[in-house]
Amino acid sequence: MTKKIKELFAPPIGLKLVDIVDGIKLYSSTKLIQNFLLAFKKSSRGSDKVKLIEILINKGFIIPCFKSKGILRFLKNKFFGSQESKAILGMYHLVNKKVYILIDNNSTIFGTSSNNELVSTTLHESMHLAAGRNMKGFLKVMMPTLRKYYGEAFTHIFSLKNTPNIDKIIYHLSLYENPKKTDTNKQLSVYYHLLYDTFKNSTELEEKQFRLKLQNYIVSMKIFFVSFSSFVRSYKKWQSIFIELNHSYEKTFGKRNIYTSPFQELVSVSEVACVMAEMQSNDKRVNSILKILG
Q1: Which of 128, 144, 155, 169 is spaced 20 to 30 Å from 77 by Cα?
Q2: Contacts of 62 (CB under 8 A, 6+ apart)
Q3: Chain centroid to CA 50: how far?
Q4: What is the pTM of this model?
Q5: Which ranges of the chain does DSSP label H, i.e. alpha helix?
Q6: pLDDT score, position 269
Q7: Which distant-in-sequence residues (6+ apart) come within 8 Å of 2 by Cβ?
Q8: Which mean pLDDT values do the consecutive 10-residue runs of the chain (294 residues) have?
Q9: CA distance 81 to 98
Q10: How far apart, in whole angstroms, are the C-alpha atoms of residue 111 and residue 101?
Q11: Per-residue confidence (pLDDT) for residue 103, from 0 to 100
Q12: Partners of 25 in the β-ladder
């Protein structure tokens, strides 16, 4: 009972429409926002970030909200909503450049949510938000970490005997987080040649093997962009890539990644910061990234 009292309690009452995202109406209230910030304050993961998060909420960058307006709709969604829709706890919308935290999906049927889970979800999506709104500032904070992470990943994926400078690769990857980017096929062709030119003198693989590995890497990205459902179905085919993406977290941060199944790192440099925020929310880099939005 004591634990429950400390958790967010925010029934879907007194709500007003705050946004419509891809045809879905979202509702919030002053009380919900107050309770949301209180959950941050009471969480060991978020207590030092309350003021930063409040600023982002006031700016309309982070929106705690319900999909359900009223108790009956809330309960109907809890009992009869699709597993896919209920699995989304929060999202960063690439076009709107806003974070939506769906309290319905973070709540039990009694209206309680885990403070730490809410904080983790919010921080995760806020890293995407920061990169989307201020990539220059994001890279200023994260560049040394990204060099380490992707350097480890590429070294093992492409069997490198040494890791050359990969800054151009990281800058290229950052382009994929812009929804207004140019043609994907063109970008992937450029990326293929960039990877080839960067690693051709460092790989221990024979030319044919290296080109095949590189081709598979680019193809996995192409499938991700074209059809996510096809990407999920073919996930095992590219498993050797994802294993190395996952191992690189432990080599970079000294902790195993138990929060995500790596694949977004293929196309999103901010995903590395997202996982970092969940692994070690009190890391000074997390606050530094939030501050570039303030």
Answers
A1: 128
A2: 53, 56, 98, 99, 101, 122, 126, 129
A3: 20
A4: 0.86
A5: 2-5, 30-42, 50-58, 71-80, 83-86, 103-106, 115-133, 135-157, 167-174, 184-199, 207-226, 228-233, 239-253, 270-279, 284-291
A6: 97
A7: none
A8: 45 80 88 90 91 96 80 41 50 92 59 73 96 97 98 97 96 88 84 97 97 96 90 88 96 93 94 96 95 90
A9: 24
A10: 15
A11: 82
A12: 20
Confidence (pLDDT) at 228: 86
Question: Among 3, 11, 6, which residue's Cα sits nearest to residue 108?
Answer: 11
Structure tokens belonging to residue 79: 């009992």
Residue 290: the pLDDT is 97
Round to whole Å and give the CA distance between 232 and 7.
34
Alpha-helical segments (H) within 181-233: 184-199, 207-226, 228-233
Closest CA to 116 of 6, 217, 263: 6
Closest of 120, 64, 169 to residue 278, by C-alpha: 120
What region, left, alpha or beta, does residue 222 occupy, with left being phi > 0 and alpha being psi -120 to 50 degrees?
alpha
